[in-house]
Automatic annotation (TrEMBL):
Residues 329-354, 1172-1195 have a biased composition (Low complexity). Residues 355-364 have a biased composition (Polar residues). Residues 1-38, 329-370, 1170-1195, 1226-1279 are annotated as: Disordered. PANTHER family: UBIQUITIN CARBOXYL-TERMINAL HYDROLASE, UBIQUITIN CARBOXYL-TERMINAL HYDROLASE 40. This is USP domain-containing protein. Pfam families: UCH. Transmembrane segments: none annotated. Residues 1232-1255 have a biased composition (Basic and acidic residues). Residues 40-504 form the USP domain. The lineage of its organism: Eukaryota, Metazoa, Spiralia, Gnathifera, Rotifera. GO terms for cellular component: cytosol; nucleus. GO terms for molecular function: cysteine-type deubiquitinase activity. One of its GO terms (biological process) is protein deubiquitination.
């Protein structure tokens, strides 16, 4: 019998073969079918509204659509019986498939035939060669129009429709120029596929066309014409243009975006610009043009700013493909909404109005305007999204599209979340997500605008244009509109951006156009979409059943006993299986109650009573109401059963006693009671420590009940001395452990006092003194020991799924519950081979319960005390069940491990289970904690236990490619410098290129190590030994010079000794360092400088001959003065001349030198002036606190800026000039730098010229970055 009510999805429990039915927990919602217009929209891939509106316009252009459908599979090089094959594979005769045309055909066919609110354009954009990131870039619909036509034209080469674009959209103009001197007229013809029109300072379409094709331009003055008939002399002339050929489809882009010379920014012109629905272009054409009458059939609307926005369109259904219903010009719903708003406003109390006036006293009209701008921008951003988006993502996108953050501008708008919630008519907001409210009319039209529409005008429009069917296509939403809606876009922010006209004499017969359109679709596409529609219908049918399934648990009345004469309690002290016809069943919510009760009576007997019950936290049931036959056709979803999902059956003649309290208001609350009277221990045996009290009971009534239970009599005088309070037994401070209720609170109900199941109340009198309430509660060993009713499902045997119930105390161990379930189900299985899981809680469904944990530790959801029994090794106290996700196995790997093993030992077990090489370390583990996989932190504390790595039972780990360093360690890439290369070789004073080689392994170091440890590790790795001629205390690490690296080249020296650790230096894992092995020990202090010295030029003065290094030690308080530098350089030069150049008796006192600093980026020298070391104690101007003469004593500062590896030129002689230091390379390099600067200047001038040209055309010269440039890739079909 129940089978008949359950439908296809349920029915367990009917007849002898009654079985438990498992409810489907979730199901993906299928695509929504078409709305009343019977037209299909397009899904937005992120920011593809510009593509959607263009595709929708082309679909409803018969001149484009029908020739496209006439292309056969052979024309498109498709293989026989082509369906869903990969377009990248060659087609018939190994010819390339014309994939753009194929996908246009498919998308057009789906939009005409597929019963879906919106189709996907992903296959089409894939055929364009677009990547996923290209679908989220805002682009211009006019630019796409040109690119798409070019792609279609190239894709149709060699087919019978190769002339499609030209025949539909291409026209031509003739530019006339008449020389006023010889009066000869020169003609030049130009083809066009669209005619861009200037909107700025133009009131309407006719004026824009007249400015181009009727008003002549005088070429005089600086703008004279060079006439070929007048010996190429400059002459005054007159220039004008005419249309020589009109296409069947005339495309008119409106140049809304202009360049503001004052601000240097682009602006969108939203001034009023009218366009007619019919137009005669005769006055703009040559006399030879015959067909000049056009009618408007599509308008593309742009909403937003120059840099971001949203496109949608109004399109005329020429062939009556859709179902059009005139939208009401004066909507009753809008009227009532407006009235309610006004009434609410008028009914606001005056004091509230005054408060609001005071609060908003600083708000001006400008503030309201700014609020509307914010509202408009947020709506525009949401229009680019298909459905729900997170509020955080929307706020981030808002900040990216404005220069001011919300926190600095919010003012009276409040927080961003509050701003959204303050506009419920625009935004639908839940906890973390937001979307636009679905509207039955176009969103851009304001309610007040609709009410203000002229009724007579709409009636005239109805009479004159009753055959016109206009629709608004806004991505996936399609709605019916009239001309009045379109005229609203003469101005406003959401204004007309492109206009499409078609020749009027091309009107088609309305009779069979819709049928003929569908009949033109290729058969293979019709078959494909028919199959898709079948699948969609099946999915919708299944989803509808899923949405209407109602899971109900049916209990027999003999399982319950009446307690306290007013409530029911499960009395099965042992485990019980549900009898036949009882247990969990799935019904259809749409079943009529009368029919449902009739079927139940057939099953359980006529006259039986059926009570709807709510399951409490304790697992007990509370009666809500009796299920009775209504006088109407009320269905199950309109009853309490759809909320509480439990039925208790009282078979005739048994009946629920009238004393049992029914209803939500009588729901019992389970309270723990602690008696604080001095003699409480003597009465503990007869007192009930747990009470179930209806939540509508007042505190005074509860006090009377407890007082009577304790003293066994009523005494009003004693009752006045009794006091009660809520206890917190975990509070160590006894005075804070109880909150005493005040006398005026005794009139409140338990629900009003916010008491919940499991709360503890203390009761005593004013003469009592309870030193410790926790000690008082310990006198009763049963305190907090409550009875629960568990439902356990059998998931081990799919053929035997009938559940059981088990009444137990909350202190019962899970192991005991599991043994009872095994016994009740009659399973021949050891207890160690199965586990219990929490059911009906998706967050905990994968986490098994420990046998040693008690029932009260389980986090049940929504009072559903349901468990399920599954296969798996039972978990011991220290065990963890881990799920390992990897690319080596299609399913997750389940591992039961001890939480005290290390992460390294876990890795060994994983490698063993996955049969990996034990030396394979190219993976690391991450714990999956959210959907944001990029935020997952790697587990790298290899020597610590799993618990120390914060892994818990049921943790899901994923294996990511790449190894990671142990915690608090870094791995460093080390390069060895082999030699230095100078280009050219003689230019030893320029920055060299280092020839390096990388070591084959990483150097792993603790993050707290100083750089000296890295030097020592390098010296050990290369097995360097200190030469014997050095003292024993010299360390090998002192021969290692360490460099930072950028772009695989050493850039700066790391000084030592230094106490800076790798962590303080912000060293990251896999950073790179280079080292140079020296022939001598080196110790660079923190402020020391290592300088490159070039010395002595050749005889011709073309280059320096010698190079060596100078270590210039600088103590903490020593300034880098010239005399100190000169002394170190002289000493080093004298030594170099004696030892290397073999000069005799060279002393630094006899050497006279000049020093110069070299700047490689400029190829320039600057003489280091000896006067730069002038006395720093010069007289100072006290007022300005600066010296009268600029001090240049510190060579580390401007203009010399000496740093490590700075090149210092040294020449013998005094008062030398820069020319003396210049080399042949320097002069050549400076010329190259000058040429590069000149080239950059010319490039900037060209850009300015291009910008000026764009300004004249009403557009901006702002160029798009390469990554945002739109493209469509097309194969070559010329051959």
């Amino acid at each position: 019998m129940i089978d008949n009510l359950s439908g296809d999805d349920g029915g367990g429990g009917g007849g002898e073969s009654s079985q438990q039915v498992t409810t489907i927990k979730s199901m993906e919602k299928p695509p929504t079918p078409r709305n009343e217009t019977n037209l299909c929209g397009l899904q937005n891939q992120g920011a593809t509204c510009y593509l959607n509106v263009l595709i929708q316009t082309l679909l409803y252009t018969p001149e484009f659509r029908e020739p496209l459908f006439r292309l056969t599979s052979k024309d498109l090089n498709l293989p026989a019986n082509y369906s869903e094959q990969n377009l990248s594979s060659p087609g018939a005769n190994n010819l390339k498939v014309r994939k753009i045309i194929v996908e246009l055909q498919r998308l057009f066919a789906e939009m005409l035939l597929l019963n879906q609110q919106a189709c996907s354009s992903i296959r089409l954009t894939d055929s364009f060669g677009w990547q996923s990131n290209e679908a989220i870039d805002h682009q211009d619909v006019h630019e796409l129009n040109r690119l798409l036509f070019d792609a279609v034209q190239k894709s149709l080469q060699g087919t019978k429709q190769s002339n499609l674009i030209r025949s539909c959209y291409e026209g031509s103009t003739i530019n006339y120029t008449q020389c006023k001197k010889c009066e000869k007229i020169f003609k030049r013809s130009e083809d066009y596929q669209d005619l861009p029109l200037v909107v700025q300072d133009t009131p309407n379409l006719s004026t824009s066309l007249a400015n181009i094709f009727t008003i002549s331009e005088q070429l005089i003055g600086d703008n004279q014409y060079r006439c070929s008939s007048c010996s190429n002399n400059l002459c005054d002339a007159e220039k004008w243009a005419k249309i020589s050929k009109l296409p069947p489809i005339l495309t008119l882009p409106l140049q809304r975006f202009v360049y503001d010379i004052k601000t240097g920014n682009r602006q969108k012109k939203t001034t009023r610009y009218e366009f007619p629905f019919e137009i005669d272009l005769q006055e703009f054409c040559e006399e030879s043009v015959a067909e000049t009458n056009y009618e408007l059939f599509a308008v593309v609307i742009h909403k937003g700013t120059c840099y971001s926005g949203h496109y949608y369109g109004y399109i005329k259904d020429i062939d009556n493909i859709g179902t059009w219903v005139r939208p009401p010009s004066k909507s009753t719903s809008v009227k009532s909404s407006s009235k309610s708003k006004s009434s609410n406003t008028s009914s606001t109390p005056s004091n509230t109005t005054n408060d609001q006036t005071t609060r908003n006293s600083n708000e001006s009209a400008e503030t309201k305007e700014e609020t509307m701008k914010k509202l408009d921008l947020v709506k525009t951003l949401l229009l680019s999204c298909d459905d729900w988006v997170t509020i955080d993502y929307l706020l981030k996108t808002y900040r990216e599209n404005t220069t001011t953050s919300w926190s600095r501008t919010r003012g009276a708008n409040g927080t961003f979340n509050k701003f959204l919630r303050n506009h419920p008519e625009v935004f639908e907001v839940d906890d973390k997500r937001v979307r636009l409210v679905q509207q039955t009319y176009p969103m851009d039209i304001d309610d007040n605008d609709i009410n203000e529409m002229d009724y007579e005008s709409s009636q005239n429009d109805l009479l004159e244009n009753h055959d016109e069917h206009w629709f608004c296509f806004d991505d996936s939403i399609v709605s019916c509109v009239t001309r009045e809606y379109i005229k609203k876009h003469y101005e406003q922010n959401d204004c007309a951006y492109m206009l499409f006209y078609r020749q009027k004499n091309r009107n088609r017969s309305k009779a069979n156009t819709s049928y003929e359109t569908l009949n033109l679709i290729p058969q293979w596409l019709r078959d494909e979409i028919t199959e898709k529609n079948k699948i969609l219908e099946e999915k919708r049918e299944n989803y509808e059943k899923f949405q209407n399934q109602l899971s109900v648990t049916v209990y027999p009345s003999d399982w319950f006993e009446i307690v306290d004469g007013c409530r029911l309690n499960l009395n099965n002290n042992n485990q019980l299986l549900f009898p036949d016809h009882y247990g969990e069943h799935i019904f259809d919510k749409r079943t009529k109650i009368n029919e449902f009760i009739s079927k139940l009576e057939d099953l359980y007997g006529t006259g039986s009573h059926f009570y709807i019950a709510k399951k409490l936290r304790s697992g007990q049931l509370h009666i809500i109401s009796e299920l009775t036959c209504p006088s109407n056709d009320k269905t199950l979803d309109k009853t309490d059963l759809s909320t509480y999902h439990n039925i208790i059956v009282y078979k005739n003649p048994s009946l629920l006693p009238d004393t049992v309290l029914q209803g939500e208001e009588f729901e019992p609350i389970m309270l723990n009671i602690v008696y604080g009277f001095p003699d409480a221990s003597r009465h503990a045996s007869r007192l009930q420590p747990t009470k179930h009290i209806s939540k509508n009971t007042t505190l005074l009534e509860l006090k009377e009940i407890l007082c009577y239970d304790y003293f066994q009599n009523d005494n009003p005088q004693r009752l006045k001395q009794i006091r009660m309070g809520k206890l917190n037994l975990e509070e160590k401070n006894n005075r804070k452990s109880r909150r005493e209720y005040k006398p005026d609170e005794e009139k409140q109900t338990l629900e009003q006092l916010h008491l919940q199941d499991g709360d503890t109340l203390g009761i005593d009198d004013k003469n009592s003194f309870v030193p410790n309430w926790k000690d008082a509660s310990s006198n009763n060993t049963n305190l907090g020991k409550n009875q629960l009713s568990l439902t356990i499902k059998n998931c081990l045997d799919t053929a035997y799924t009938k559940p059981m119930t088990y009444s137990c105390f909350n202190t019962t161990l899970i192991g005991e519950v599991k043994l009872m379930a095994i016994q009740a189900f009659g399973i021949l299985l050891e207890a160690d081979m199965c586990r219990l899981y929490v059911d009906d809680n998706p967050d905990l469904a994968h986490i098994p319960l420990y046998d040693h944990q008690s029932v009260d530790t389980i986090n049940f959801k929504d009072n559903n005390t349901n468990l399920c029994l599954k296969f798996g090794h039972a978990l011991k106290e220290n065990d963890l069940l881990l799920y390992i996700l990897s690319d080596r196995e299609p399913c997750s790997l389940e591992l039961v491990v001890d939480q005290n093993i290390t992460l390294t030992e876990l890795w060994l077990q994983i490698k063993h289970e996955l049969k990996m090489d034990y030396n394979d370390n190219e993976y690391h583990l991450c714990e999956v904690t959210s959907s944001l996989a990029d935020d997952e932190q790697p587990l790298n504390d290899f020597d610590q236990t799993l618990s120390a790595n914060s892994l818990t039972n049921g943790a899901q780990l994923t294996m990511r490619p790449g190894s990671v360093a142990p915690k608090n360690h870094v791995r460093l890439k080390i390069f060895r410098i082999l030699d230095k290369i100078y280009e050219p070789m003689e230019a030893i004073h320029i920055d060299p290129k280092y020839n390096t080689i990388e070591f084959g392994e990483y150097f792993e170091l603790p993050i707290i190590s100083p750089f000296n440890v890295l030097r020592e590790r390098i010296a050990q790795y290369i097995e360097f030994r200190v030469p014997s001629n050095y003292a024993r205390d010299v360390k090998p690490s002192e021969f290692i010079r360490l460099f930072d690296m950028e772009n695989n080249q050493p850039v700066s020296i790391i000084h030592e000794p230094i106490l800076t650790t790798l962590k303080q230096a912000k060293v990251q894992d896999l950073d790179s360092y280079a080292f140079e092995l020296l022939s001598y020990p080196e110790s660079l202090a923190k402020r020391d400088l290592l300088l490159n010295i070039v010395y002595n030029k050749d005889d011709d003065g073309n280059y320096f001959q010698h190079q060596f290094e100078v270590h210039w030690p600088l103590k903490e308080n020593i300034i880098a003065k010239y005399e100190y530098l000169e002394q170190h350089v002289l000493t080093r030069v004298a030594s170099y001349m004696t030892n290397n150049l073999h000069f005799q008796k060279v002393t630094k006192e006899k050497l006279k030198i000049t020093l110069a600093r070299y700047f490689p980026d400029r190829a320039e020298w600057i003489i280091i002036d000896p006067r730069s070391s002038s006395n720093t104690s010069q007289p100072t101007n006290k007022k300005n606190k600066t010296s009268n003469t600029p001090t240049k004593s510190n060579l580390k500062l401007e203009p010399y800026k000496l740093t490590d590896l700075t090149v210092i030129g040294v020449l013998e002689g005094e008062q030398l000039t820069v020319e003396d230091f210049d080399t042949k390379y320097d002069k050549k390099r400076r010329r190259e730098i000058q040429q590069e600067k000149e080239q950059n200047r010319l490039s900037r001038d060209k850009n300015r010229t291009d910008n000026d040209h764009n300004k004249k055309n009403g557009s901006s010269g702002r160029r798009k970055s390469p990554q945002n440039t739109m493209r469509i890739d097309v194969d070559d079909f010329d051959n």
